[in-house]
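Handout, section 4.2: multi-component inputs.
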Amino acid sequence: MADAIEIDALTGGYETNTLFQRISLTFPKGAFIALAGPNGSGKSSLLKFLYKQLKPKGGTIWVEKTNLATLRQEALAQKIGFVPQNGRLDFSFTVEETVAMGRYANPQKDDEQRIHEAMRTCSILNLRNTPVTQISGGELQRTFLARALAQDGKILLLDEPVNHLDVAHQRSVMHLLQNLVTRGYTVISVLHDLLLAQAYSSWIIFLKEGAVVADGPTEEVVNEAILTSVYNVESYRIYDPYLNKELLIPRW
Amino acid sequence: MRRHLGWIILFATLLLALISLTIGSSKIGLFATIGVFTGHNTSATQRYIIINLRLVRIIASFCAGMILSLGGVSYQAVLRNPMADPFILGVSSGSSFGVALAIYFGLASRFGLPLFAMAGATGTTLFILALASRKRSSNTVLLLSGVAANYILSAAMTLLLFLNREQYQRILAWSLGTFSTATWNHVVVAALISLLLFLFLYKNHRNLDLLLLDEGSARSSGLAVESVRYRLLLISSFATALCVSFFGVIGFIGLMAPHITRLILGAKHQRLILPTALAGGFLLLLSDTLARVFLPSGELPVGIITSLLGVPLFLFLILKGRYRFG
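Output:
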């Protein structure tokens, strides 16, 4: 399988904290990739390197075989979309106007067909004239996702996309992401909920204190020993008849 | 109404300007006022009063209102803060300090107050921008730097006032804003600046939209966040500084006008910028007209009117319920 993104010996982080020391990773194309690890392990920071909010001190990041350092922000926007954790917009743009912002870097900025298609995919077309200040958290998350889809990139980065959503909304957003993967998108999502990660991701990366503890196919990587070494918790297995597979549950 | 808001404001402004032309200590009726422009039966004195005293301040207040409201639009987007106005980063306190300094050292009569106001405002702006360009300063760092600059410059100005109490009235009057000293030179410069600021912001309407997103979303959508923010801050601050140096500190227009038009038109800047500029111009012209009629003799500083008129209207609008921030 080709790689959507390849990180080669990345070193970098923040002014007072060099979080990553020569880490290397691959993100397989067309996979649903979960980024997991304790708070402060570097999951969100890793995403920041991928959309160029943070600049590496060393190493190279390849996005679809192009060196990220040589990509201008506008060119990158046509490859990678990002959905923030708890996205907020305090100004009364309509849902459609917010989604249309995703077209900023595209030559056809007002391509209504693409904007509507992104809204339809996220089931928010009926809300298109509603101000984002008047929609629910789940709808807002879908709006931000549609905005990222409208960019036309095939790689989606998501930082805790279902944080603060109720179970029904969590399920619908995760289904939507899974559906995008079947349509050829590469989804890279920070996920705190290990059950969601096991249920939906096909590839998982565990980070701890800026280091890669494990990465690979989810079913192979997630085991009791990894959870103990990453989170220092014990776990047990249950069989999920609907997913038809065993899931690892942390012991409370 | 949404589609025609710009035309409605423009028509209301022309009507208000006509009424405003007839108001003043010299009684010049509506027909005589119109006669000045059509060349019928008016004395040279009437022409002088209408053109050089009243029309000049009407256009000056309208242009200043445009600059301040456009500044408000820009600052609210750059700082991603609905409470931001063009003075939030210290332009007003910088210019007031410049004026107080000039008066204290007796330099005002030789060089004129606007020069010192401009120097104070520009100095403060450059200081804040230097901070903004350092590494990756967040909006919060910028805002706090502005608040800090406001406090320290206000304290320094109060100290100068305290040391030079007989000039207190003069500095206070200036700091509350007035168009009574407006000249045609001011008008030409203010009109040019308001036009350029409008064109600049209109060209940046998509950038302004994206700046209201979180930084990650804006950046990942392709926006070069730092350079766009820096450019917008620089241009808006200089336009505001110039306005303040001519006409003094006139609060609330920069906060109020963008919120009123957003309430009607939504937040998209492409739709918002022109009506906001016109609304700012209208509101300041209205305030200045009221400032001229409020007292039986003399006039009130216009800054008092903008707050007296603006705050209740503003509170009414934001408490109407449907309105959340913008």
